[in-house]
Every structure is written in C-alpha cells, then in structure tokens.
Specification:
single chain, alpha+beta, seven-stranded antiparallel beta sheet, 10 helices, 7 strands, 62% helix, 15% strand, globular
Length: 376
C-alpha cells in the first residue's frame, strides 16, 4: 500500500509543479506583452520589472487551485486509462487509501492558499496598484495609447484615433472638471505639451458643446488651448478592502461597528442624516466581512478541487476521462463565477454576501463526497 501511495503521490506532485509553472506563465503572458509595449514607449524597465514581480504573488491565488484540479484530473485519469485503477480494485485495494496522501497534500495547499490570500496577496495588490499610480503620474505622455478611453487624469476622459510623437489626431474629450458637468470637446488634431504638473493641449479645428453655462450651445474655433490641471502631479493609491491583510480587515470591521453603535448617542445629527451614515457604515462592514470570508473560501479551493478531481479522473476509458475533465472545467468556471457574483454584491448586506461566498465551496465539497463514495 505504501508503495502505491508513494507512486501516486509522486506522480501528482510532478504534475502539480509542472501545472503551476505552466499556469503562472499563461497568466503572465498578458502582463509580459503589456510590459514589452511600455518598454518600447520609453517607460523605465526597472519599474516594469518591479511591477511584474509584485504581481506574481497575487496570481498564486488562482494558479494554485487550478493546478491542483488539473493535476488531479491528469494523474487519476491516466491511472484509469492505463487500467491501473481497475487492477487496484481487483486486488481489493481501497481507492480512498490511495487518494488519502493526495488529499493530505490538498490540506497543505489550502493552508498555503489561506496564508497567501490573507497576508501576501493583499500586500501584492497594494504594491501593484501603488506602482500603477506612480507610473501613471510619472510616465505621463508615454502611457497615452490611441483607440482607448483614457481616464487616468482627474475630471477628464479623452480618446484619440492616432498619435505621432506628441501630436494627437481626432481627439475627443469629456470634461467634467467644471462642477461635474459633462462638456464635450472635439479637435481635428492637438499638440500635447507638459508644463509643470499640467498638460496643455494646443488644439486645431475645435468644437465645444456646451461652451459654458452662459453659452449652452456648441462653439467652434480654429485654434484653442485646453489645460488639464495637475495631470502630472504624483498620485497616491487609496487602499481598498482588497489591500488590507486579515488582521487589518478585522480591526476595520470593529472600528466601523463601533462607529455605527455611537450614532445613536450623537444628538448633533438629524435623523435622516444619521440613517444615511448608518447605511453607508453597514455597506462598508459588509464589504470588509465578505472579503474576509471570500479569502477563506478561496483558500479551501485547492483541497476541494483535489477531492473533486480525483473521482472525476477515475474512469474506465479515455472517453469518460475526457467527459470528467469537461465537467470539472465547467464546475471550476461556475465556482469562480459565483465568487465574482458574490464580490459584486459585497455592499448589499441584505443578501448576506459573506455567507454566499461559501456557497461554491460547499456545493463542490458535497459533489466530491458523492463521487468519492461511488468510486470506493
């Protein structure tokens, strides 16, 4: 029995390491392509390398569970296709005893994932967003790309079709810097110049609608200079719940709940104002609590995926093994889709999103228990 356990466990570890490397590389392809483009545009390669480095820990949140699932499917599917599982059953071997060491690895992977999700990934998220803010303010015009809506500047969204050095063509600007009123500015071409913390747009063949509150209609001009104030000013990333470690999140929840409890004794606030503040505090508490539960639920996914992948991989023919892989991929997609939906309603406490975060994990665990029982 020990020989069989070492054989299956060794095969699984080899498949897991290779799967982890492949999945990490696949998830990094998009970042590598983007990094190469930014290097060509003149952004500091050291900053890009640092961005890629701090992004890797956060990718482990997804690659470890996926590698655990794929490895279980491949190893046990191969054992089944080569009739090794049938031979074990014929010899009276309890398949659960063969699965048990791999399930033990799943426990270790889940503990590792829980630690990554609660301690390392939040720091990685904060470092990555901080670097993005630094790059956006420091790189300036190097990051401007044609064909996309650019929202990196305060109170301003703009788009242009083509760029030649510092000259933009077919420029479209949505200016909300004046009392949040949307003003549309179009220009045939514009020369971009950096002056201090501001960006100056020397525009030609311009159309503005509305021009001002006193002139609500459209105004055209052959040439006009438009200023984007503080566009080059250094920016600081404001942390969200995804950037806080577990201890910080729990402390935040305690502070918000204490603040909500103190509202009833605050006689300086009007009842309507107190209700609005209370609703806002409830939403923030719900978002923080949901993030805590989501991390824990996602941390258990390697163990759940291993328990689900092993019985689905045990099939008597290659065709059935392929069906098992397809079912597992569908379950995996459903699992992450439910987590995404849970995160989208994190600020809706009436839906109990912190409990919904456990739903995909519980469903997969129940399904795994049923399949394992049938394959014993």
């Amino acid at each position: 029995m020990r020989i069989l356990q070492r054989y299956v466990t060794g095969s699984y570890l080899t498949a897991f390491i290779l799967g982890e490397l492949v999945l990490t590389f696949v998830l990094s392809i998009g970042l590598l392509v983007k990094a190469a483009e930014l290097v060509v545009r003149g952004l500091d390669p050291a900053l890009i390398a640092k961005f890629l480095l701090v992004s890797l820990p956060q990718s482990l949140t997804f690659t470890v569970p996926l590698a655990a699932l794929v490895s279980a499917l491949l190893v046990f599917g191969r054992l089944s296709a080569d009739n090794e599982m049938s031979a074990m059953k014929a010899c009276g071997v309890n398949l659960w005893q063969v699965m048990l060491p791999v399930a033990g690895l799943g426990v270790l992977m889940s503990l590792l994932s829980i630690y990554i999700n609660n301690e390392i990934s939040p720091q990685s998220h904060y470092a990555r967003r901080s670097l993005s803010a630094t790059a956006a303010s420091g790189a300036g015009l190097k990051l401007l790309q044609p064909g996309i809506f650019i929202q990196d500047f305060p109170g301003m969204t703009f788009w242009f079709a083509r760029r030649e050095d510092n000259e933009l063509f077919n420029l479209l600007i949505f200016d909300k810097s004046r009392d949040s009123k949307n003003r549309e500015i179009r220009a045939e071409r514009a020369l971009v110049e950096v002056r201090g913390d501001d960006i100056l747009l020397d525009m030609h063949n311009v159309r503005i609608e509305p021009f001002s509150d006193t002139h609500p209609g459209a105004v055209t001009a052959d040439r006009l200079t438009h200023v984007i104030p503080d566009a080059m000013k250094p920016r600081v990333y404001k942390p969200t719940v995804s950037s806080y470690r577990r201890g910080d999140l729990k402390a935040m929840i305690g502070e918000l709940e204490a603040e909500a409890a103190a509202l009833d004794s605050d006689e300086t606030m009007l009842p309507a104002e107190r209700d609005l503040v209370r609703v806002d505090l409830r939403k923030r508490v719900s978002a923080a609590r949901t993030e805590l539960h989501r991390r824990m639920a996602l941390g258990f996914s390697p163990l759940v995926f291993i328990l689900l992948g092993m019985p689905l991989g045990i099939r008597s023919s290659r065709r059935e093994s392929t069906v098992g892989i397809a079912i597992s991929m569908a379950v995996m997609v459903l699992y992450y889709s439910l987590l995404i939906i849970t995160k989208s309603v994190a600020k809706r406490p009436e839906y109990y999103p912190h409990l919904l975060a456990w739903l995909p994990t519980v469903v997969c665990l129940v399904l795994a228990a049923i399949l394992i029982r049938r394959n014993r």
